Amino acid sequence: MLTFAEINQKGGSGKSPGAVNIGHSFARKNLKVLMVDADPQATFTEHLLGSRYPIGNPSFYHALKDLKRIKPIVITPRMDLLPANMDLQYGEIELQRKANFQMRTAKLLELYANDYAICVIDTPGSVSMYTVLALAAADQVIIPVKTELNHVRALVDTMETIKDVQESGLNARLKIWGILPTQHEVNTLHHQEALQILKHTYGELVYSEISNKTTKYNDACHPQRRCGYP
Asked: What is the pTM of this model?
């Protein structure tokens, strides 16, 4: 199972819509995809289900806490979800008491590895333990960045976290798939300048296809609004 983590420690970068679209792209290629919501705000889950996932129901939190496989929710014939809700915020305290807790997501995903070709993990839009756990479990990391100067500047913190996970021994195999410019406004000078700075600073890491600002990008998070998905 090839695991992608969608990471940016600044909110509003378009992580959840990006993760949804990436998951559906793999599903269209007839690959079985496991979507994992590792964000206590559970935006990813709400996007995929069209509603909030009830507190107390079996979720990513329970699977992570007990290191026990729960049955994922079927989204499409080739896409399943390990959902999240506000229960996940309790793990910030509980999981840090566990031995080798940084590797807990990686250990949990091993229980699903034989059933899925791809795993896509959505993460919090802030500095979080769950970001580190996702990076420790991932093979590749995708970094969506809104083309605004404050988002480009904040990318430094995310890059440092990735580097720390790579060099600390938590996950030496972790690779950066790319930096994905999002919500770009073609006719706005500020966005043009931010994009140029992003390309100048990170070079070939910046994905060549820019995601322009459009309501369709965010609407794609809602299954009932899509056409043509499996």
From this structure: 0.89
